[in-house]
Each structure stands twice: as C-alpha cells, then as structure tokens.
Design goal:
The protein is an all-alpha fold and 66 residues long. Helix content is 58%, strand content 0%. It contains 5 helices and no strands. It is globular and about 40 Å long. The mean pLDDT is 86.
C-alpha cells in the first residue's frame, strides 16, 4: 500500500484526510502490523484512484495469460 500511496505522491496524513482512514491505521497496514478489512481497503483504493486488484497486486488474466 505504501508504494501505491507514494506513486500517488501522497503523504500518509494527506491520504488519511482524503480517505477518512486514520493515519495510524494506514501506518499499521503499511508496516504489516494490521491488515485492513475489505471496507478499509476499498476506501483506500478509491482514495488512491486504483482498483482493489491493483491495491493487492492481483494480476488479471487476459485471454488465458497472466
């Protein structure tokens, strides 16, 4: 998640303001101290302007290829 935040050019506090997710929660997720639930992940992905697949690093198959 940190990479997505940094690619978006956002500091943790700015992402917290945009998403409504507490900065310490974002920090804990980034440092693998806590895993966000689907609601939190959805909110953060939306605030970062990315899909949940991109957020979690899921590769979408296209025509049987990865």
């Amino acid at each position: 998640m940190r990479r997505a935040r940094e690619r978006a050019g956002l500091k943790r506090c700015k992402l917290a303001r945009l998403s409504g997710v507490a900065s310490n929660t974002i920090s804990n997720i980034e440092h693998d101290k806590r895993h966000g639930g689907i609601d939190t992940i959805t909110i953060l992905a939306d605030a970062l302007g990315i899909s949940i697949d991109d957020y979690v690093g899921h590769k979408v198959k296209k025509h049987g290829k990865i």
